[in-house]
Amino acid sequence: FVALRPRYMEVFCVCPQAVGHPDEASCRADLGARVVTSEQERCLREVYETYSRALEPVLACEVDAEDALLDCAARVLQTCPPREDDRTACSVQYNLDLEGCPTARDMVADRVANCLAP
Fold first, then answer.
1. Chain centroid to CA 94: how far?
2. Model confidence pTM above 0.85
3. Which of 4, 69, 82, 85 could serve as 8's disulfide partner, Cβ 3.0–4.6 Å?
4. What integer is the mean pLDDT of 81-97?
5. CA proximity to 101, closest of 49, 66, 52
6. How many CB atoms lie under 10 A from the CB of residue 34?
């Protein structure tokens, strides 16, 4: 899923400096602008429903990877600013998790991109 889920703000804005923001308000504003809109979500759901059998394993894997990333980040950000090694470990694990996901989404990548276009 390319757009951010609301949980990102709850996790990352606890330590806004760790994600390049001077304060919580600017962090929430920036991340909030990336949260999927209701129209984008409707469009995405339509695409995913069309290809649900092919995409279900992809989406499930990506959501699991994202949840694991957010859990890792929540732990790491309990210390603000976090240790760089800890931040890196979360990113590395997330990338490994995503690499393990199936790639059926390629067949609908253009339609998904159109949904998320401004």
1. 10
2. no
3. 4
4. 94
5. 66
6. 13
